[in-house]
Amino acid sequence: MFLEILKSKIHCAVVTEANLDYIGSITIDEDLMDAAHIFNGEKVSVVDKTNGARLETYAIPGKRGSGCICMNGAAAHLMHVGDVIIIMAYALMTEDEQRAFKPSIIFPVNNKI
Question: For the whole model, what pTM was predicted?
Fold first, then answer.
């Protein structure tokens, strides 16, 4: 049996942009993606601490060192510039694998590590 376990989390990042005209996804500063071990195109859950909205989308890398967190497409209706969000990615693993696994959790300051 496989369990869906938290693999990565960017805790309390701040939305810096919202782009309704983009097809979809969340753009994340590539430094933050690397630190959290989130990959280009990986499915992520996003929770908005400011208004309670939740969604699933996929991550795309933004400019390194920019602090960019951009909600793209329809997500820009739910999460706005200045909102504090949590970005999470999950992995499937066995019960034995999860016992030894430690998720990558980062706490950015001003969207930088």
Answer: 0.96
